[in-house]
C-alpha cells in the first residue's frame, strides 16, 4: 500500500499500535483516500477506544472543532459519536475532554444543534447526559419555537426506552413540559397527534396539561378524540384530569360534536369511545356550527349507523321526544335524512326508525312546519318501507 494510505488502513483494521508507530515515523494522515474514508476511520477509533488518535485527526485537520464552521452535522464527528460511543466510564471521560475542545457547540447547523442532532441519531442516553453536562443547551428551540421534547416525539422509529430517557433528561434539566410552539401545540398534543401513546404517562406525570389549548382552541383531548379517535389515548389522558366538554374551540366546535362529525364508521371501538364520553359528562345536545348552521350531537347521531343509535339509546341520555328549535324530534331527524338514492342507506334508516319507535318515540308529534316524521319520510320513494312501518305503528 502507498504511504498515503498506510495509517488509515492500519486504523480501519483496528491495528492502532501500528498506526501510532507510523504517525510517529512521519507517515501522513491526509489526502483523498483518507478524506473518502474519514467516517470509517473515526468510527474505528471510537469503537476501539483508541481515543488518543482523535487528537491526531484534529491535528491533521480531519476533525473540525468549531461548530460554526460546519455546513452539516450529518458528515461531522458528532455523527460518529452518536453511532459509535456507548456509556462506559472511559468513553465518557474521553467525551468530556473532547467537548472541551469544541467551540460554539450550541450554534445551529441547518436549524439543528449538536444536542438535538445526537438525540435524532439515537445516541446512548449517557452520551446525551454528558453533552448536557458539558454545556450543550437543553433550552434550545427551533424556528417553529419547538423545544427538544418535540424533537424526541417527532423522531420516527426511535427506541421507546431511549426516547423516554431523553425526555426524562430534558425535563430534569428544566425543559418546559407545557411549552407551546408557534401554533400553540404542546409536547402532549404532539404525542397524541403522532400516536406516541408510550410517552403520555411520562409527560402527564411531569405536569403536562391535557386541557391546555393551542391557537385553534383545541386540547390534547380534542386531538385524541376528534383527530385520532383513539380511546386508549383518551382513557390515559383522563387518568390525570377530566376532559372539558363544555368549552368550544375557535370554530365553536365541542369535543363530542367534533367526534361525531368525524366518526364515519360504527366499529365497536368507535361506539365505545362515544359511550365513554357520554358517561364522562359530554352532552348529546350540544350544538356546534356546521356550514354556519348549528348541528347538535343528536343531529349527527340521526345520520349514523343503527348500531351507534342503539348503543346510545341504551344509556338513557336521549329524551326520546325532545323537540329542537324547529320542533323536530330525533325521529323527525332520522326520517328527514337524505339517503341519496342509496337502497342500503334507506334500509339502515328503516332500522333506526324501528329502534326509536321501540324506545317510545311518538310518531304523531309535528314540527314547526306541521310535519310528522312520516310526512318527512314520504318525500322519498326509497323510504316506502319506513312509511309503511310508521303507518303500522300509527294504526296499532
Report on this model:
It contains 23 helices and 2 strands. The radius of gyration is 32 Å and the shape is elongated. It has 396 residues and is an all-alpha fold. It has helices spanning 3-13, 16-24, 32-36, 38-47, 52-59, 77-84, 89-100, 114-120, 125-133, 148-154, 160-172, 187-193, 200-205, 220-227, 231-238, 255-262, 268-279, 297-303, 306-313, 330-336, 343-358, 373-377, 384-395; strands spanning 287-290, 293-296. A two-stranded antiparallel ribbon has the order 1-2. The protein has a domain at 177-242: Alpha Horseshoe (Serine Threonine Protein Phosphatase 5, Tetratricopeptide repeat).
Q: How would you describe this structure in keywords?
A:
repeat, Ankyrin repeat-containing protein, mainly alpha, 2 strands, transcription cis-regulatory region binding, Serine Threonine Protein Phosphatase 5, Tetratricopeptide repeat, about 400 residues, Ankyrin_rpt
Question: What is the strand and helix layout of this fold?
Answer:
Elements: H1 3-13, H2 16-24, H3 32-36, H4 38-47, H5 52-59, H6 77-84, H7 89-100, H8 114-120, H9 125-133, H10 148-154, H11 160-172, H12 187-193, H13 200-205, H14 220-227, H15 231-238, H16 255-262, H17 268-279, E1 287-290, E2 293-296, H18 297-303, H19 306-313, H20 330-336, H21 343-358, H22 373-377, H23 384-395
Helix pairs in contact: 1-2, 1-4, 4-6, 6-8, 7-9, 10-11, 12-14, 14-15, 14-16, 18-20, 19-21, 20-21, 21-23
GO molecular function, one term: transcription cis-regulatory region binding
ANK repeats: 183-215
Protein name: Ankyrin repeat-containing protein
Amino acid at each position: 500500500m502507498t504511504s498515503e494510505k498506510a495509517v488509515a488502513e492500519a486504523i480501519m483494521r483496528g491495528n492502532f499500535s501500528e498506526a501510532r508507530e507510523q504517525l510517529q515515523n512521519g507517515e501522513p494522515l491526509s489526502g483523498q483516500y483518507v478524506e473518502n474514508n474519514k467516517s470509517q476511520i473515526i468510527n474505528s477509533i471510537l469503537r476501539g477506544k483508541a481515543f488518543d488518535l482523535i487528537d491526531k485527526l484534529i491535528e491533521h485537520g480531519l476533525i473540525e472543532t468549531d461548530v460554526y464552521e460546519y455546513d452539516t452535522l450529518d458528515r461531522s464527528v458528532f455523527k460518529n459519536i452518536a453511532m459509535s460511543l456507548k456509556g462506559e466510564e472511559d468513553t465518557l471521560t474521553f467525551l468530556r475532554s473532547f467537548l472541551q475542545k469544541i467551540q460554539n457547540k450550541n450554534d445551529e447547523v441547518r436549524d439543528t444543534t449538536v444536542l438535538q442532532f445526537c438525540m435524532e441519531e439515537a445516541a446512548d442516553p449517557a452520551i446525551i447526559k454528558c453533552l448536557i453536562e458539558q454545556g450543550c443547551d437543553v433550552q434550545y428551540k427551533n424556528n417553529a419555537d419547538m423545544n427538544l421534547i418535540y424533537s424526541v416525539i417527532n423522531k420516527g422509529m426511535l427506541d421507546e426506552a431511549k426516547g423516554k430517557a431523553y425526555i426524562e433528561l430534558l425535563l430534569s434539566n428544566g425543559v418546559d413540559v407545557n411549552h407551546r410552539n408557534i401554533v400553540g401545540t404542546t409536547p402532549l398534543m404532539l404525542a397524541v397527534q403522532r400516536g406516541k401513546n408510550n410517552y403520555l404517562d411520562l409527560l402527564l406525570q411531569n405536569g403536562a396539561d391535557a386541557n391546555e389549548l393551542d391557537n385553534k382552541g383545541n386540547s390534547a383531548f380534542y386531538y385524541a378524540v376528534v383527530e385520532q379517535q383513539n380511546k386508549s389515548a383518551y382513557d390515559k389522558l383522563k387518568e390525570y384530569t377530566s376532559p372539558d366538554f363544555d368549552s368550544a374551540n375557535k370554530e365553536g366546535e365541542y369535543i363530542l360534536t367534533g367526534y361525531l362529525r368525524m366518526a364515519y364508521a360504527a366499529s365497536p371501538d368507535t361506539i365505545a369511545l362515544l359511550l365513554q364520553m357520554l358517561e364522562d359528562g359530554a352532552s348529546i345536545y350540544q350544538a356546534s356550527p356546521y356550514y354556519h348552521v348549528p348541528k347538535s350531537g343528536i343531529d349527527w347521531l340521526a345520520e349514523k349507523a343503527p348500531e351507534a343509535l342503539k348503543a346510545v339509546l341504551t344509556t338513557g341520555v336521549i329524551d326520546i321526544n325532545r323537540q329542537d328549535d324547529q320542533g323536530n324530534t330525533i325521529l323527525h331527524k332520522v326520517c328527514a335524512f337524505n339517503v341519496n338514492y342509496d337502497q342500503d342507506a334507506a334500509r339502515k334508516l328503516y332500522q333506526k326508525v324501528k329502534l326509536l319507535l321501540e324506545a317510545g318515540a311518538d310518531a304523531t308529534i309535528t314540527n314547526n312546519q306541521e310535519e310528522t316524521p312520516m310526512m318527512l319520510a314520504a318525500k322519498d320513494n326509497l323510504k316506502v318501507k319506513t312509511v309503511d312501518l310508521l303507518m303500522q305503528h300509527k294504526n296499532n
